[in-house]
Design brief:
Protein name: ABC-2 family transporter protein
Number of strands: 2
Keywords: Membrane, Transmembrane, Transmembrane helix
Organism: Calidithermus terrae
Shape: globular
Transmembrane segments: 21-46, 109-136, 142-164, 176-197, 237-255
Number of domains: 1
Largest sheet: 2 strands, antiparallel
Pfam families: ABC2_membrane_6
Structural class: mainly alpha
Order of helices and strands: HHEEHHHHHHHHHHH
Length: 267
């Protein structure tokens, strides 16, 4: 198989993400509505907080507002859903068929996830318009947008491989609901989707920086909010690449062992 044909097949999986998204338009509108409500609550919450202070953790109101609005726009977009995918495929007995495909299983799901990330970003355009109405001030430096794009892709990749390893637990438990809900709650807080990591107590902030969750919200959004200077981009990207390499290797190793424990319908 030539490289061109191989890439075209993986690109096909990315295209499937957009088709799946269009098939669930009711879910899209419900998600958009709840996100808009959450954004509105956050705006009034931070206005009330800053009515009593000019600076919080070195951040002014406008900078915090920019961060919070942007965080709400992209929150959840970089999730791969690997845990739920593994749980579904094991429950339906499809995992064996997926492993028999003449393509790398992890590569297929990564391509599909990449399509989801792009589709997700485009689908959040109405929220971005709402954020502008609430006072979002986009950065004037074009490099900030480039840094955001690169950091978001790298951060989403970090979370893909991390979620892949967590998803391997499904091979042992065959039930992922409890783990999925727990992961969602932990990621929501430690990703920086609710509050900038800068405002966390020092110990909690250091703990959040050890975990990979901040790679998908705080790290890319901080470029647009002006929290992380563009000049620090090379250092940030290098750190994210290191995360990807380490987790990619670990995820392959974990999967190779977890797949031996696969059971389908108790068999």
């Amino acid at each position: 198989m030539t490289l061109r044909r191989l890439l075209s097949r993986y690109a096909g999986f990315s295209g499937m993400a957009a088709k799946e998204f269009l098939a669930y338009n009711v879910w899209f509108w419900m998600n958009l509505f709840t996100s808009a409500v959450a954004m509105t609550i956050f705006v009034f919450f931070w206005k009330a907080i800053y009515a009593q202070a000019d600076l919080i953790a070195g951040l002014g109101f406008q900078q915090t507002l920019n961060y919070v609005l942007l965080a709400q726009v992209i929150a959840g977009v970089g999730e791969s859903g690997i845990l739920w995918t593994f749980g579904y495929q094991l429950r339906e007995g499809r995992i064996a068929l997926e492993l028999l495909r003449p393509l790398d299983f992890q590569g297929m799901l990564y391509a599909f996830s990449a399509g989801n990330w792009l589709t997700g970003l485009l689908s959040r355009t109405p929220l971005l318009l709402l954020a502008l109405l609430y006072g979002l001030q986009p950065p004037a430096d074009p490099l900030a947008y480039a840094c955001f794009a690169v950091s978001f892709l790298l951060g989403a990749s970090v979370m893909f491989f991390f979620e892949w390893m967590l998803g391997c637990l499904a091979f042992y438990t065959t039930e992922v609901w409890g783990l999925g809900v727990t992961l969602f709650a932990i990621q929501l807080f430690f990703s920086g989707a609710l509050v900038p990591l800068d405002m966390m107590p020092e110990g909690l902030r250091l703990f959040a920086q050890i975990l990979p969750f901040h790679q998908i919200v705080y790290t890319p959004v901080s470029f647009l909010a002006g929290i992380t200077p563009v000049a620090q981009a090379p250092q940030v990207f290098l750190g994210q690449v290191a995360w990807i390499v380490g987790l990619a290797v670990a995820s392959r190793w974990v999967f190779s062992r977890a797949v031996r424990a696969v059971t389908v319908q108790g068999g």
